[in-house]
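Now for a specimen:

…
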Amino acid sequence: MKHLLAVMTLALTLLAAPAFAHDADGKWEGMIDTPMGAIPVGFTFTTDGAALTGTSLGPDGGAIPIKNGKVEGNKISFTVDLDFGGMAISLNYVGTAASDRIAFSGDFMGMPFEFTVTKAK
């Protein structure tokens, strides 16, 4: 009986793991604190199995498509390519999704940063 209970618990855990990825679906908003002040950030995500697609809020307020989006359990990762006056910059993001927030870390030209976004209402 204990063996059956352990197997059932493991099976339910493995079946529930993909559900964490769906927590990333939707619109997310937050701020990144910088030496020059807070900068608004926003994302819209859709998950499909291990694939993550969507957009990021651009510096001009427009939507920029995310690239190379991946989902592994409650972890998400993607890249956003920006163009600053002809200078191309790729921002790599790694996040941990929960039901109402995603904690991100990233790197901007060798400078790491962290921020949290919450689900938009």
Observations:
- The two ends are 45 Å apart (CA to CA).
- Strands lie at 26-34, 37-48, 51-57, 63-65, 67-72, 75-84, 87-97, 101-108, 111-119.
- Residues 2-21 have pLDDT under 50 and may be disordered.
- The chain has one helix and nine strands.
